[in-house]
Description:
The protein is α/β, with parallel strands linked by helices and 73 residues long. It is built from three helices and three strands. The protein has a three-stranded parallel β-sheet with strand order 2-1-3, with helices on both faces. The longest helix has 13 residues. The radius of gyration is 12 Å and the shape is flat.
Amino acid sequence: MKPKKTILCVDDNEQSLSIRKVLLETRGYRVLAFNNGEQALEAFRNGSVDLVLTDLMMPGVDGSRLIEEVKRL
């Protein structure tokens, strides 16, 4: 069996995050869902993430900063 790809989803809107998570999981992906950039960065540092989907406008670590950190790591 082929291992599931892991998608890191980040959105401060809980409803959007929940819908995205369910849609991706029903298509066979493993989804790590977070509602803030700080937690998402910590999860990314732990490894095994194949794709990052992020909202751009969030309090604290916004999507642009999150992507810059991901690229740096």
